[in-house]
Write a structure and sequence with these properties.
alpha/beta; globular; 38% helix; 193 residues; 8 helices; 6-stranded mixed β-sheet
Length: 193
């Protein structure tokens, strides 16, 4: 088992399934025998505000919060939130992001413009960057709402957790009526190159 602590940050806006994804990730890490700590920060998450979930796992973990600049993987559900959270990553960290723009209220009301060139900014700072169209891939699995599971599948390839633990975690955390779609979505993300 890996001696060091792995720090994963999940960021996006309310309603994207971030908290379910962090529950599945935490469960998979526990099934793999790791000590796991998790914390969430909800900023008006019911209204599309920022959501950040910290998941830390390793042989022994004391704090649930990833220290700034020590994140190993940034798992972004929305591009602006992903860009905003880049300072949490360590140099050489990994970014897995959904190719999705959700305009905040200030943009919707015409007070600000949605920033341009976010993908290029992320790539310039973190070359280990994977961009997926989570909604499109989830739609091909049977339900666009499984985009979080597509992204989780892509992130799973970057973590030292066997696929069997991911599948058991999905079975435990996802309602049975949505399990088949989520299994397909996870595999699409895991197989994405």
């Amino acid at each position: 088992m890996n001696e060091q602590i792995t720090n994963v940050l999940l960021v996006g806006v309310g309603g994207q399934g971030i908290l379910l994804a962090s529950e599945i990730l935490s469960e998979a890490a526990m099934l793999a025998g790791y000590d796991v700590k998790k914390s969430e920060i909800h900023g008006m998450s019911q209204r599309g505000g920022s959501v950040v979930s910290h998941v830390r796992y390793g042989k022994q973990v004391f704090s649930p919060i990833v220290p700034e600049g020590e994140g190993d993987i940034l798992f972004g559900f929305e591009l602006m939130e992903t860009c905003r959270s880049l300072p949490l990553l360590k140099p050489g960290g990994t970014v897995v992001a959904n190719d999705l723009k959700i305009s905040p209220p200030s943009v919707l009301m015409g007070q600000e413009l949605y920033p341009e060139g976010l993908v290029e900014r992320i790539k310039a700072r973190f070359p280990d960057f994977l961009l997926l169209d989570g909604q499109q891939m989830a739609g091909s699995a049977g339900n666009v709402r499984a985009a979080n599971t597509v992204l989780l599948g892509a992130v799973s390839r970057k973590l030292d957790i066997a696929e069997q633990h991911w599948m058991k975690a999905l079975e435990k955390m996802v309602p049975s009526k949505a399990l088949d779609v989520n299994r397909k979505a996870f595999r699409l993300g895991r197989d994405y190159k």
